[in-house]
Design a protein that fits this description.
- The two termini are 34 Å apart.
- This protein is an alpha/beta fold.
- Helices cover 47% and strands 10% of the residues.
- A seven-stranded parallel beta sheet has the order 3-5-6-8-10-11-12.
- The structure holds alpha-D-psicofuranose and manganese (II) ion.
Length: 429
Amino acid sequence: MILPISADLIAEHNHAHAAALDEDYAALGRKLARVGIDIEAVKDRVAGFSVAVPSWGAGRGGTRFAKFPIPGEPTNIHEKLEDCAVINQLSRVTPRVSPHFPWDKVSDYGALREEAASLGLGFDAVNSNTFQDQPGQAHSYSTGSLSSTVAATRQQAVEHNIECIEIGRQLGSTDLTVWVGDGTNFPGQQDFARSLDRYLEAAAQVYAALPDDWRMLLEHKMFEPAFYSTVISDWGSSILAAQELGPKAKCLVDLGHHAPNVNIEQIVARLHRFGKLGGFHFNDSKYGDDDLDSGSINPHQLFLVFNELAEAEANPRDGFRPSYMIDQSHNVTDPIESMLSSAEAIAQCYAKANLVDRAALHAAQEANDTMMAFQALRRAYTLDVSPILAKARVEAGGAYDVLAVYRDSRYRDRKAQERRAVGLGAGIV
Ligand code: PSV
Ligand code: MN
């Protein structure tokens, strides 16, 4: 396997920080040992954690207005995979890529799978795209896709999703993520009940094409590109649709797809309670679906989400195996750097959630001791777990300081010489 960053460079950097890391890790180990926690066991759990990166996140995203490309951006799925390999080589926490079709279409998916494997990568959930028209497409999605009033359009959307399943089988995926941009911009534009009926009927055809070991992840979003109503607007619509479709249909929570200030961690607990929590799209936001870097605005919310996931893991229901993925738009940063930083923020929250003293939390909850219940969470949240993450990363061959090694490697500069420039234009949705 030939990985994009020099192993010698990583080793040289790690060597320079080895003594400091050992010291920090030992100090944190002593602190945790005082409360009966074995740091090695926590490190092993962290080493087993992973989050997928989105193929489309490797390029510079944008807003509705424009994007500002950078030299050396990837221009196709092959270059995106190479960039994703850099992220995983340095972080050792992002071994899978989630592709989006038709954006990532190629002629030979078996070869693409091998190419990814040669870079140390596998494929995660496949994503269908019925939220924008493609050149030469027979029917426009301007009337909606799976819920369109036009039968031929619904059929086209069903066929595209089934094609994505077929591609995913070749890539080794086992999940299809379905987000539709269907909705309305004006009161009265469509009938709420009938549009949901149409969606359910079309989605059932996609569901029927799922292989036995596959899941269909329904991603809700309350706005954009439709701004009055959307068909799968919230977790309520999502879970009802998933329940109607069947056991292989689960709900996917994109952190940016809710009304402002909604209690997302409670949604996570609710979906899990009914065996319907399928996966996540991690990102952060201040206003809407801002698609900012994970943990950059509200890291506490991310921790509280992982706290619910830790509870769910301790009390699994209905084959709990959430699929974790980043879904961000990197408008002003190098996407590789954003995903390195985001993956670290996500893994930190996972580690902190694992450090919550659950017995103390549950005892305080039972005794209605509000302050001590809150403190059980607070103690874990305020811990600096970075030595645990760094130790796990370095032991797996990654970099102690992922951003420093990435910058030192001058990877982007080298790609700027090799890759053709990407054009201006709108960003992603
Ligand atoms: C929609 O906003 C979304 O979150 C969906 O996951 C899409 O597939 C993705 O963004 C890419 O634009
Ligand atoms: Mn998403």
